[in-house]
Write a structure and sequence with these properties.
The complex is a heterodimer of chains A (392) and B (213).
Chain A (H helix, E strand, L loop, with lengths): L17 H20 L3 E2 L5 E3 H7 L9 E3 L5 E4 L4 H9 L9 E10 L11 E10 L4 H17 L5 E7 H12 L2 H12 L3 H10 L4 H10 L3 E2 L3 H8 L3 H20 L5 E4 L12 E7 L7 E5 L13 E7 H8 L9 E5 L4 H13 L4 E5 L6 H5 L5 E4 L8
Parallel strand pairs in A: 1-5, 7-9, 13-14, 13-15
Antiparallel strand pairs in A: 2-4, 3-4, 5-6, 6-12, 7-10, 8-9, 10-11, 11-12
Helix pairs in contact in A: 1-4, 4-10, 5-6, 5-10, 9-10
Chain B lengths: L1 E6 L2 H12 L15 E4 L4 E6 L4 H7 L4 E5 H7 L4 E5 L5 E7 L11 E4 L2 H10 L5 E4 L6 H4 L5 E6 L3 H5 L3 E9 L1 E5 L3 H4 L1 H23 L1
Parallel strand pairs in B: 1-3, 1-4, 7-8, 7-9
Antiparallel strand pairs in B: 2-3, 4-11, 5-11, 6-9, 6-10
The chains are: A alpha/beta (392), B alpha/beta (213).
């Protein structure tokens, strides 16, 4: 590549300017307050992890990982998600803590983007992990918490779609028989290619009934009544188990008062391959991409030698900020502009006003190049200029 | 309101006919309007008229909820959208063509195409090393004046190829237009989109049933 311009940043990296920073801070504070209110403890993990451990467990495509070498030649990755690092912590530093663990994080994650340079390759994610709890109450809790968080952040209109990876897997295995063929079908769903899925189903040597079952999966989207349709597609023990789980989930979400925002969508499959059960995504009506996603991952902790069932969600702060919109009521600080003879008075006054919680800039007049343009950057300006307090 | 991205040009007329057959009341002046945004209030629909190659982009970003795009464009652009329905209109196919179908000489034959992504994927699968040259139109010209050894392009009747003395050397895959949906709209506007899919698929299935008779 050619030498970068002096002001250029690496592909996908962004500056956060004060206006957006303020917005993000206010969202972040609201989310943290709600999350802590539900008893989750915030924690941090390192930005760099080993490729062989967290990198491979993370289920982010290899070509999306930022990789580098340490001095000893080990391959490192910039963490591409937070679920795998927290699973590592739960299985190591926190291994003596009794389950269930309720942990939360607010961290930047890194994913290299291939198409169109403008997409962010570093973004802030806020989320929770509820580790060591296999109950449906745990699934309901994280979904309800996600709804509470989005609502408290100020989002008025949002929806949550709930699917079940286990249901899809059981349905595919019961019809096509082996994992290899199930993986082909799953791939069509993951690629959102329903035309290809239908074509593939038609070409498979299956009975008409089985073909119909596979086709009908694509229409299993809607309210709680879809659960009863789902059982017709998978009328066996595994199907009953999943449907019981989802009925309990819906019931519990009603108790939390969030059932209205929730829809079932059995076609929902996530790019995160570690999910094993309930999966969900959050959407704002005015945003073209999902805001948040999550689900149950019962096999991830095994990779770190402390087998445990777990569930959690993550919210993309940049998407949430976009959905909320950068508001105009930017709170500017106030200023005291002084001339040298009244310097002490200016400093004294500023420190008193700051003690009352006011944001005050102290600026000497001769340091300003354009007074009109500069004073517009403040809500209110006090001039302490000239000897006898006469002002200007 | 539902926003639909429509491809200008070749597919447009067939797409409009399909929508009319599905019971959407589109006024007659719709067909030769030069406006880029057309609101049909009675149907609660807004149409945006885009270059065919850009339709999946509008839909991926959510400024259009749904759209009609050729499979060729879907393969080339690889956008994150739902490909919900095969509309079975504007049928054609992607193919490789050249001056003759003999073996190509040279270390890395040159391939001219409007679809660099599709072409490089295809030749990678074939295990052939090639050099891709991206052109924006009149692809048939490339082998005639020695810019490329082969071209990758969509073929509908094959007339353009024959008239320029070119012959098809390999078939890549069949192409039709698809109904595509933004992943968020698919969930947040599910009722209106499902209704549209149902009406369109009734027309599509009905027509293909007629053909089979």
């Amino acid at each position: 590549m050619t030498r970068p311009f002096v002001f250029e940043k690496p592909l996908g990296m962004r500056d956060t300017l004060p206006v957006l920073y303020d917005l993000k801070t206010s969202i972040r504070e609201k989310i943290q307050r709600v999350t802590e209110g539900w008893g989750y403890r915030f924690m941090n993990t390192p930005t760099l992890e080993y490729y062989e451990t967290v990198g491979e467990a993370s289920a982010i495509l290899d070509q999306q990982l930022f990789k580098l070498l340490d001095q000893r030649g080990n391959t490192l990755v910039l963490r591409p998600d937070m679920t795998a690092p927290i699973a590592r912590v739960a299985a190591s530093s926190l291994k003596n803590e009794p389950f269930p663990l309720r942990l939360a994080y607010d961290s930047n994650v890194f994913r290299a983007q291939e198409d169109e340079g403008g997409k962010p390759a570093e973004f802030e994610q806020i989320g929770v992990e509820l580790i060591g709890d296999r109950t449906t109450s745990a699934d309901a809790e994280v979904i309800a918490l996600m709804a509470a968080v989005l609502e408290k952040a100020g989002l008025e209109d949002f929806q949550i779609a709930i699917g079940h990876v286990g249901f899809i897997q059981e349905l595919f295995l019961s019809i096509v028989g082996n994992e290899e063929r199930a993986a082909v079908l799953r791939r069509y769903l993951y690629e959102k290619n329903y035309v290809g899925y239908r074509q593939h189903v038609r070409e498979m040597p299956l009975s008409t009934i089985d073909q119909k079952r596979l086709m009908a999966l694509l229409t299993l989207r809607g309210d709680g009544s879809k659960l009863e349709e789902a059982i017709e597609l998978l009328p066996n023990e595994a199907g009953e188990r999943v449907l019981d789980e989802l009925r309990t989930l819906l019931h519990t979400l009603k108790a939390y008062g969030v059932a209205d925002q929730v829809k079932f969508d059995f076609t929902l499959v996530s790019h995160m391959s570690y999910y094993t059960g309930v999966v969900f995504e959050g959407y704002a009506n005015n945003l073209g991409v999902p805001l948040s996603n999550g689900g149950r991952y019962d096999e991830l902790l095994e990779r770190f030698d402390r087998p445990a069932q777990a569930t959690g969600f993550g919210i993309r702060l940049d998407h949430l900020a976009e959905a909320l919109g950068v508001t105009d009521n930017e709170r500017l600080p106030n200023a005291i502009i002084f001339s040298p003879e009244r310097r002490e008075e200016a400093i004294q006054q500023a420190s008193e006003r700051r003690a009352d919680g006011e944001k005050v800039v102290v600026q000497e007049l001769s340091g300003i190049t354009n007074l009109d343009a500069y004073s517009e950057r403040f809500d209110d300006v006090t001039y302490l200029i000239g000897k006898n307090g006469k002002g200007m | 309101m539902l926003t639909m991205a429509m491809p200008k040009g070749r597919i447009f007329e067939e797409a409009v006919e399909l929508l009319r057959n599905a019971g959407y009341q589109l006024p007659p002046e719709f067909d030769d309007s030069r406006k880029l945004i057309i609101d049909i209030e009675e149907e609660n629909l807004r149409f945006i008229l885009a270059k065919p190659m850009d339709v999946p982009t509008y839909v991926e970003h959510g400024v259009a909820d749904v759209g009609i795009a050729g499979k060729d464009v879907m393969l080339e652009e690889e956008r994150n959208v739902y490909e919900v329905l095969d509309l079975k209109i504007s049928g054609c196919y992607l193919a490789v063509a050249g001056l003759s179908d003999g073996p190509i000489k040279g270390v890395a034959p040159k391939i001219a195409t409007k679809y660099p992504n599709v072409a490089s994927n295809y030749f990678r699968q074939q295990g052939e090393q090639v050099e891709i040259i991206k052109l924006n139109g009149s692809i048939e010209l490339a082998p005639l004046i020695g810019l490329a050894d082969r071209i990758v392009d969509i073929v509908s009747t094959g007339r353009t190829l024959t008239e320029n003395g070119l012959m098809e050397t390999a078939f890549i895959e069949p192409i039709t237009s698809r109904f595509i949906v933004n992943p968020v709209s698919y969930r947040t506007k599910d009722a209106i989109i499902d209704d549209m899919v149902e009406r369109l698929s009734a027309v599509v299935e009905g027509e293909s049933a007629d053909e089979n008779r």
